[in-house]
Design a protein that fits this description.
mainly beta, 5-stranded antiparallel sheet, globular
Amino acid sequence: MAPSDGPVFLRWDVDTLNTPFKAGLTYNTAGFAFVYGDYSNYQTVVAFVQGQSYFFIHSVDSGNVHGWKKFPAN
């Protein structure tokens, strides 16, 4: 997901890099996300999957990638 100086809301799909779909964590190919920060340093992504009752968080801390973690939405 793209770097940002401030929080960004974006739509992701099958062609977007670094998504829960690309990581093999969901069969759904679309959703939306809130992104904050720069992947090369510090970044947090909260990604929601279209039509599903769960979401994912991906974080980077000082360049250390912590990967996607799945959470129930309800």
